[in-house]
Amino acid sequence: MAKSKPRVKVPKSAKAGEVITIKTLISHKMESGQRKDKAGKVIPRSIINKFTCEFNGAKVFECDIDPAISANPFFEFTAKVSEPGTFNFIWVDDDGSIYTEEKKIEVN
Amino acid sequence: MKFTRRQALGLTAGAAALGFTGLGSSLAFANAEDTEKRIMEFTGGKKPESGKITLTAPEIAENGNTVPISVSVESAMSGDDLVESVMILAEGNPNPAVATFHFTELSGEASATTRMRLAKTQNVVAVAKMKDGSAYSDTRQVKVTIGGCGG
Amino acid sequence: MKNKIIATSLAMALVSTAGIVGLSADPVDETLSIDGTPMVSRTKAPEGHPFDEVMSGWLFRTSETRALEADSFSNPGMLGVEEGEAIWNTVEGTAGKSCASCHNDAKESMKGVGASYPKWDADAKRPINLELQINKCREQNMGAEPYAFDKGGQKPLTAYIKNQSLGMPVALDLSKGELQKWWDDGKKTYYSRTGQLNLSCASCHEDNMGKNIRADHLSQGQVNGFPVYRLKQGGLVSVHNRFRGCIRDTRAEYPKAFSDELMALELYVTWRGTGLSVETPAVRQ
Fold first, then answer.
1. Rounded-to-integer distance, Cα C263 and Cα C275, Å
2. ipTM of predicted complex
3. Minimal Cβ distance to C232: which of B20, B58, B149
4. Of A31, A78, A80, the CB nearest to B111
5. Residues facing residue B116 across a β-bridge
6. How far apart are CA C107 and CA C147, in angstroms?
7. C74 and chain A: CB distance < 8 Å anywhere?
């Protein structure tokens, strides 16, 4: 799996005040920095080190990620929605790359 | 495929399994002391109490590379009854740090699920830091198994 | 000869040890449902099969591993399937085509493909699996380079195409060409002991199916879910990679991927799973 592609599952709609479940998955090798190559040299660490979920610009959930998180990092968490809007998801790579995804939700 | 004697011994002993988890064959595994230190740093010196937080992890991990875990903290998640962060540590990994979840009022609930790597059978610890300064922890032992045929 | 007997006994001792606490010795009595759609994970074996019932490897895994496959969102193998979908729609090669240029929507055109390969290739006069069919299409129709084993888009694209047959029963047509002869060869390989450990496929997957080898719960060794997402690798694993790995683990020299020996074996082993639902991408340990 070469490029890092995110997948996000957010319900399409919710009632105001409801607590919804959000699931996220992103493809990434999460090279821990513990492995050695065939020549015995340490393969340098290269992971996604931070994941943030925002709703209409405000932080909902964040995770500081260490190398012990498995490849293709998966996170499931909750969010309380009281108005319609947009979720923004941000993954930060050790190499400085930023991956993002967004999902809209209707709230009645 | 030719095996050197070391490789053959390694396969027999199952030591090679450590390399497969991606967490290396380093014998400098963290011990309970290092984990204690990190917990104290996280809580600001407060020894965590038991209760409020539940760490869910399998009793036996089919493969140490991908072990599903989840945490949940009883909290209204509003006003002063708020969970700020939950730190996950793996006592027996070369580096005990796993992840730190940060919650807000918008989280609704202080719960999260993820998948982690475990180098060997060990305790996984979850520590919750609350807005009012209190701290709670839960510990689960996860047995990490070696697959058949060294693979 | 003596050494071989000792090695085999040691190996079998490993297999018989029930060993680790808590691991059940029997496959679970559950049905796999993916996103609510039930899969056939147990079915009556075809005529001439050594088992009465064929069982999916899913039944032999822990509850956490089984749960990963039941939800297509949580299944990390689906990331590979998505990658395959992107490749399907990407133009490559001198002909300026993508897979989609000829095959349009894979959901329609590839339905059933994953359940009916390997097939007979009249041009090459040997069985052809999905990986080689993709390469054949790339070379002949797209003017693109064939994928090297397990490289490039081979795994994700194979997973994507097979995933279009999710739920469909594995069913091969052995009447075509000389498939029956290759099936016989594959069967011979399946029951041939190899390596320092002197084990055949059957030693584990037939004689000791359901027992533990160290802490691994031995399945029937079916391939209906390949390419699988292996927790150990944290990525997709192909059939021939698994064959080579298993043979390597008997401490034998292992055949080249897509060699005659492994093509025959794939044909035979696929047949052993006749009736099981295609589960690609299955989640295994």
1. 20
2. 0.94
3. B20
4. A78
5. A69, B67
6. 23
7. yes
